[in-house]
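chain below, 178 aa
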Amino acid sequence: MLPDQALLTELEPVVAVVEAYRQAVEDFFAGMPAAPWIRTLPIGEHGITAPTLWARLGDAPGRWESFQHLQAQAGSVPVTVKSGKQRVVHFRFACDKMLRYVVDQAAFLSMRSSEWARAYYDAHRARGHTHREALRALGAKWLKIIFVLWERQVPYDEQYHLATMARQQLRQRPKKIA
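prediction:
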């Protein structure tokens, strides 16, 4: 037996166990009350991203005070330190690392099926942001949306979100051209 074939033979049971575990997570999550609305996010129908996101969010009604609180906990927004005339912005190291990871994963997956998410990411890249910075900014945007969905227990609707974005742009004051 060749070494490659021996390795494949040894990996087959591992792959089977991982698949069984993934299916167990899917089955468990499907029975939860949040599964119908969180599965509407454009992060893929299957996989562990949605269950992991829900596990990190939790289901306690008052857990997150605001979307800013959630963004800070996920490490998707920087820390601003102000003192006198100085203002310094730092990367947020103190956060829930697993939540940061799953939000980054959800943001990355959303670019495949959400046009506004892809456009938002591309706009940040065009401004000179790195891939990680643009992904973190997109993740912060998604956390704002997810907070509202989590709070109201309603499904995500891409058309509703696009209409809301258009309304918000109309409400912004026009910039004065000098």
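DSSP finds eight helices and two strands in the chain. The chain has a mean pLDDT of 87.
thats it, cya
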